[in-house]
Design a protein that fits this description.
The structure holds 2 protein chains of 2 kinds.
Chain A (H helix, E strand, L loop, with lengths): L1 E4 L1 E4 L2 E13 L28 E7 L5 H10 L6 E4 L5 H9 L4 E3 L5 H4 L5 E5 L4 E4 L1
Parallel strand pairs in A: 3-4, 4-5, 5-6
Antiparallel strand pairs in A: 1-8, 2-6, 3-7, 7-8
Helix pairs in contact in A: 1-2
Chain B lengths: L4 H7 L5 H16 L5 E3 L2 E4 L9 H10 L8 E3 L16 H8 L1 H8 L22 E3 L2 H11 L10 H7 L1 E3 L13 E5 L9 H15 L4 E4 L6 H14 L17 H4 L8 E4 L1 H11 L10 E9 L1 H11 L9 E6 L1 H9 L2 H7 L3 E4 L10 H6 L9 E4 L2 H10 L3 E4 L2 H10 L6
Parallel strand pairs in B: 2-3, 2-4, 6-7, 6-8, 9-10, 9-12, 10-11, 12-13
Antiparallel strand pairs in B: 1-5
Helix pairs in contact in B: 2-7, 3-5, 6-9, 8-9, 8-11, 12-14
The chains are: A alpha/beta, B alpha/beta.
Chain lengths: 134, 421
């Protein structure tokens, strides 16, 4: 079991498998709006599914439509369980996370991508600002 | 975050559930970015809720059903059709029907149905230094820069600011984030900066360099609101600029030193005529004499004096067969222009005075046509005097483009081909 310190951006706690995306992610364009599958071939992530995962990524890029993408995924029951980024939170995505009650943390150590593999179960506790791999 | 007694009362539900939820969201937004407290906003420009985005209108209608009401004067941004005269843009009935549901929903919430990207032209001008929550990038940058009214780039939670009347004290609401970051010196021949297209091109060039920074633009001196409006619109298109300063013109920059709050950058970008030329080349991919079938004026929405000018240039002329010519403005300005006989002159020529929308926000978008199973209106080439419009129509409407001045736009509409004089 290893614990990583994070900074709470949008409140919430969850227990779910992690999905790693060790690069900048554009919620508009990089994920399929009907299946929640990742469409880009970065870090062997193509075809992985965001639904119900603690999605760990470097930072966001691209259109401000990202918030609407989160909303769409939530509406079809395929939203990620939580968002965790290495770099500072994106303003627009934060709005989408608040509205859709998706916990969001930032400031995780980039070494996380080397330490942890996809599918590992984790507990995100934003009351205590930590992410624990089980 | 430190809350006042009033805010605690709102949060506890003493002023209703909708207001409590709205405030909760705004507090979360502030906490996400480390804001220490909230401030009262005095005005809000509300998101469009356009029928071209699936679920957008339905969501707004549903939200209005919750009993949520705005607590500050609130105007609304553009739609996908002219609700008063939907036939003039040819918007399909299915989209008009859906879009028209927004009016009763907005009225229920107390939102004024202005449906424009330029609410400042309607007199919504709060005092210098006041706090607001706005959407629409060209309005945001104008309020921040020209009026000194403080706002961030609003998004999905602008709705909730309007309902609770609060916004976190952060971003461009704070003095320290309003200082210049990039220094530009304009050395363009003075006789060139006399039309909207030229100011639009200048904004486009600077915006690409400034990105999300705060450009300070030296060497220009205009107090014409239309020029400052289009300059801001393209700064926010080519970059994501939210605030600019022109020393001696905009209110927070009487001098260059004041614009940078005393911390002048080492590098100064010099802008020359050829830099402006490069923007025209970027935004123009047709040649003089090539056929065109769409002419647009009014991005951002036109003021009354510009409608008056367009009418004078169109008086006695006829647009060529097969050419769409939209002059976009807001409802109140069209009413005034009707009263003044301006609309009649324009419409006699075959051009349309369009309200509530513009080409890129309308059913003309290819993706919208595909999504709603509508016929794609095949547009070959658009001539326009706005860099903002042309930046988007190439991708969204799928047409070729040409940037030129109002006079050439009108000549092109009359001749049915791209005219440059």
């Amino acid at each position: 079991m290893k614990t990583y310190k994070v900074r709470k951006v949008v409140r919430g706690n969850c227990h779910a498998p992690v999905l790693l995306f060790p690069a900048s992610f554009s919620f508009l364009g990089d994920v399929d709006l009907e299946t929640a599958e990742i469409l880009v071939d970065t870090g062997n992530c193509k075809g992985e599914n965001l639904a119900g995962k603690i999605f760990v990524f470097m930072e966001t890029k691209g259109s401000s439509g990202g918030a609407l993408v989160l909303q769409t995924l939530k509406n079809i029951g395929k939203a990620p369980a939580a968002l965790v980024s290495v770099h500072a939170p994106d303003f627009n995505l934060v709005e989408g996370a608040i509205l859709n009650e998706i916990p969001y943390a930032s400031g995780i150590d980039a070494g996380f991508f080397n330490d942890v593999s996809n599918g590992k179960m984790a507990v995100l506790n934003l009351d205590e600002e930590k992410l624990t791999i089980q | 975050m430190k809350l006042t007694k009033e805010e605690e009362d709102i949060l506890s539900g003493k002023q209703g559930k909708a207001k409590a939820q709205a405030l909760d969201f705004i507090i979360q937004l502030g906490e996400a970015f480390g804001a220490e407290r909230l401030v009262d906003i005095v005005y809000c420009h509300y998101p469009a809720e356009m029928a071209i985005y699936r679920g957008n209108v339905e969501d707004a209608v549903e939200y209005a059903e919750t009993g949520a009401k705005v607590s500050v004067p609130t105007t609304s941004s553009t739609l996908c059709c002219d609700l008063e005269k939907p036939e003039i843009t040819g918007c399909p009935a299915q989209l008009v029907d859906l879009q028209s549901q927004i009016e009763p929903a907005h009225r229920k919430m107390g939102i004024l149905e202005t449906f424009t990207c330029t609410p400042q032209h309607l007199g919504f001008i709060p005092p210098f230094g006041s706090y607001t929550a706005l959407v629409e990038s060209s309005a945001i940058i104008y309020y921040n820069s020209v009026l000194g009214v403080r706002t961030n780039r609003g998004g999905l939670l602008t709705r909730h600011s309007a309902v609770c009347g609060k916004y976190p004290l952060m971003g461009y609401l704070l003095d320290e984030n309003r200082k210049g970051t990039h220094w530009f010196k304009v050395e363009i021949s003075r006789e060139r900066l006399i039309s909207e297209d030229a100011w639009s091109a200048l904004g486009f060039y600077i915006g690409k360099i400034a990105g999300s920074g705060v450009p300070v633009i030296e060497g220009v001196n205009t107090h014409q609101q239309e020029f400052l409006l289009v300059l801001g619109a393209t700064l926010a298109t080519a970059g994501s600029v939210t605030l600019f300063h022109i020393p001696g013109v905009t209110p927070e920059a009487r001098t260059v030193e004041e614009a940078f709050q005393g911390q002048l950058p080492e590098h100064k970008y010099i802008i020359k005529d050829e830099d402006l030329d490069s923007v025209y080349e970027t935004l123009t991919n047709i040649s003089a004499g090539d056929p065109i079938d769409f002419v647009t004026l009014g991005c951002p929405h036109y003021t009354l004096p510009l409608l008056q000018k367009a009418a004078a240039l169109l008086d006695g002329k006829k647009t060529a067969p097969g050419v769409r010519f939209w002059i976009c403005t807001n409802r109140m300005t069209r009413k005034q222009a009707e009263y003044s006989g301006i609309v009649e002159v324009i419409e006699k020529s075959g051009a349309k005075v369009v309200c509530d929308t513009c080409p890129v926000e309308s059913h003309m978008r290819q993706s919208t046509c595909r999504e709603f199973g509508m016929k794609v209106p095949n547009v070959a080439a658009m001539v326009c005097n706005s860099g903002k419009m042309l930046r988007y129509v190439g991708d969204l409407i799928g047409c070729k483009t040409a940037l030129t001045n109002m006079e050439n736009c009108i000549r092109s509409a009359v001749e049915g081909k791209f005219v440059t004089k």
